[in-house]
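Dear Dr. K.,

Following up on our conversation at the group meeting, I've run the structure prediction for Extracellular solute-binding protein from Candidatus Brachybacterium merdavium. I'm pasting the input sequence below exactly as I used it, so you can double-check it against your construct before we proceed with anything downstream. Let me know if the numbering doesn't match what you have in your notebook.
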Amino acid sequence: MYTPTRRTLMATGGAAALGGALTACNGGLGGFGGGGDDGTTTILYGWWGSPEKDEALFAAIDAFNAANPDIVVEGESTPWEGYWDKLATMSAGGDAPDVIHMSERYILEYGERDALLDLHSGDGLDLSSLDETVVALGESGDSALYAVPAGLNTFVLAANIGLFEEAGVEVPDDTTWTWDDYYAASQAIADAGFVGSNYGSGIESLRPWLHQHGETMYTEDGTAAGFDEATLSSYLEHLLTLREHGGQTADQVSEGAGMPIESSPFANGQVGMTWMYSNQLGEIAAVDDSDMKLMRVPSQTGQASEAGMYYKGSEFYSISAHSDEDQQAAAMRFVDFMVNDPEALELAGMIMGVPPNTDAVEQASSDLGEMDQHVLDFVTDLADDLTVESPGPSPIGSGNIQGIFDRETLELLYDRITVEEATSNIFSSINSELG
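The predicted structure tokens came back this morning:
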């Protein structure tokens, strides 16, 4: 973690201390934000971070500030763990950052409770170069735009090519492989003394499995699970099958819980394959010198078009509804810069996913590094195999569902509960959270 500074305040202290600190220095409450004596408007941008991401975003902030002398953007970073508790505390006090880094999991949670500005309601943010389906990723059911994607990604497998080579295992063809091929590759890596694969036991790796069975994560109205218990049971059986074919032990899963991805066993060359978001590959590759590549999700049939993959907004920009008008106007200009300006996209690279403005990406892509170019090519080429529409923001109440999955699947891997018990616990918990 960086040495604490004004820019990294969010990374220090507890939620209560943070709320008090920002009440004294942010927004329209008379401290940090607002207009200065020289006519400038100062705004705060808060995000969950990592060393590589922080470096990129601070560079983009500096570039914006240099080009916009009437606005001063200050940035604050915190690790994912604790970010949402802190944001909840600040938002409850009407004192959130002016520009809020948002996850699709919480867009409706905050937007429907009047904490986020409807981005359709202001000026300064040009969305004309973004596809309508991309803009819709941040919209509510009544078309209020609570967030705009910072990037697009997809949930995938990644392979450590160096470890495959060391183990003497051929990397499967991800355009034709099945789940049996995946298990076989994991087992072969384990036979060579490594861990074959992690599980990806949360809801993101469940979604393609559901799509392959013609089902969805949530019902259309977002009030219940959109899948049958039998399909969930088959997914949990799949996790146990992987465990018997070189998957991580339950202890390894427990030890890695909450570990930053750049510190994970995969990043340190101990695991052959991992489930991850496509935009995370750059952070991992910066740790391990081995060649790495993204891979499509295995399918039931060996046809990539039937793998159930989809694009999603990797991360989003939102603007606080509690900031004053000048701050909101400045925030709109900053978000516009981050979404549309080739300089910003060049500085950020693929760290937050493939930028949604394809025109600006083309202008910036000539300067991309090798790994960023691989991510861009993979996500772009994947379009031909996508047969599932990108889901909109997750329904209100869904924020705890990932934790429920993590808890129940770990209990399953420890053999403390059966597949039937885990299925019942997960299914009833989802409906309880959403109902």
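Two things stood out to me. DSSP finds 17 helices and ten strands in the chain. Confidence is low (pLDDT under 50) at residues 1-32.

Best regards,
J.T.
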